[in-house]
């Protein structure tokens, strides 16, 4: 299923890759996301845009793996890599941001069609957070690059914002995996998560939603009975007169 592979690739690209030698993990993540988005095209043309960006970032991932890998192994590279290193920093930031916007747009579109209001609202919220991160990061790389005060007080918040939208986007993608199915599988039961605590959280959420639906139905029945009783009492009083 596309959303499951996308979830795995997303975590590898934006979360697991924060460790040492993350450039290798990032390349694998972009490749997995490309495969997932290719599968997700069956849901709509909106997934074509993030697919194109994922393929572009896979190419960037190859460049980054070669550049950083050569540094680790002390291998001398052609002058091209050194000459383009600064520009590639912007390519990475812009490409990563646009890719996330495209994924969120695709999720927003499909959840709007399927009337999944919770996931749709999550996509809007996450897009705003990603936009704030992009603006702050561009300031850090551009006009305020050498501003010690900005670096001192905004470096950590920028990192925390990045960590925040990474987690929120991963949760949104996983939610899509749990609740969106291919055409023809609408009557299939909800997929169960292999992660124990996640499955327990989802089961508890489903239980509360079912209970809320039952309570609402019972409340409406009670109000209907009271309405009928009032009408009968009113009719009975008129007959007595």
Mean pLDDT equals: 81
Radius of gyration equals: 25 Å
Strand content: under 5%
Give the overall form. Answer: elongated
- Note poorly predicted spans: 183-190
| Helix and strand sequence | HHHHHHH
Number of helices: 7
Q: Structural class of the secondary elements?
A: mainly alpha
Number of domains: 2
Determine the fraction of residues in helical runs and give it as a percent range. over 70%
Strand segment tally: 0
Major β-sheet profile = none
What is the terminal separation in angstroms?
71 Å
Mind explaining what this structure looks like?
- The chain is mostly helical and 241 residues long.
- It folds into two domains: 2-179, no CATH class; 192-241.
- Helices cover 81% and strands 0% of the residues.
- The protein has seven helices and no strands.
- It has helices spanning 2-14, 22-40, 48-73, 79-113, 117-141, 148-179, 196-240.
- Helix 1 packs antiparallel against helix 2, helix 4 packs antiparallel against helix 5 and helix 5 (117-141) packs antiparallel against helix 6 (148-179).
- It is elongated.
- Mean pLDDT is 81; it is low at 183-190.
Secondary-structure blueprint:
Blueprint: H1 2-14, H2 22-40, H3 48-73, H4 79-113, H5 117-141, H6 148-179, H7 196-240
Helix pairs in contact: 1-2, 1-6, 2-3, 3-4, 4-5, 5-6
């Amino acid at each position: 299923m596309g959303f499951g592979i996308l979830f795995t690739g997303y975590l590898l690209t934006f979360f697991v890759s924060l460790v040492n030698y993350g450039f290798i993990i990032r390349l694998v993540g972009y490749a997995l996301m490309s495969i997932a988005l290719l599968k997700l095209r069956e849901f709509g043309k909106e997934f074509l845009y993030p697919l194109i960006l994922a393929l572009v970032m896979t190419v960037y991932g190859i460049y980054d793996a070669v550049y950083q890998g050569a540094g680790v192994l002390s291998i001398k590279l052609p002058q091209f890599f050194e000459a383009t290193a600064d520009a590639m920093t912007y390519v990475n930031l812009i490409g990563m941001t646009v890719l996330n916007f495209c994924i969120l747009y695709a999720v927003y579109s499909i959840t709007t069609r399927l009337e999944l209001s919770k996931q749709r609202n999550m996509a809007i919220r996450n897009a705003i957070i990603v936009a704030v991160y992009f603006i702050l990061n561009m300031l850090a790389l551009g006009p305020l690059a050498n501003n010690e005060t900005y670096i001192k007080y905004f470096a950590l918040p920028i990192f925390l914002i990045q960590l925040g939208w990474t987690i929120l986007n991963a949760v949104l993608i996983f939610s899509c995996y749990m609740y969106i199915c291919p055409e023809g599988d609408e009557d299939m039961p909800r997929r169960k998560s292999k992660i124990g605590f996640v499955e327990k959280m989802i089961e508890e959420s489903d239980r509360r939603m079912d209970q809320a639906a039952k309570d609402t139905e019972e409340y409406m029945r009670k109000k209907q009975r009271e309405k009928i009783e009032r009408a009968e009492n009113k009719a009975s009083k008129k007959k007595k007169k």
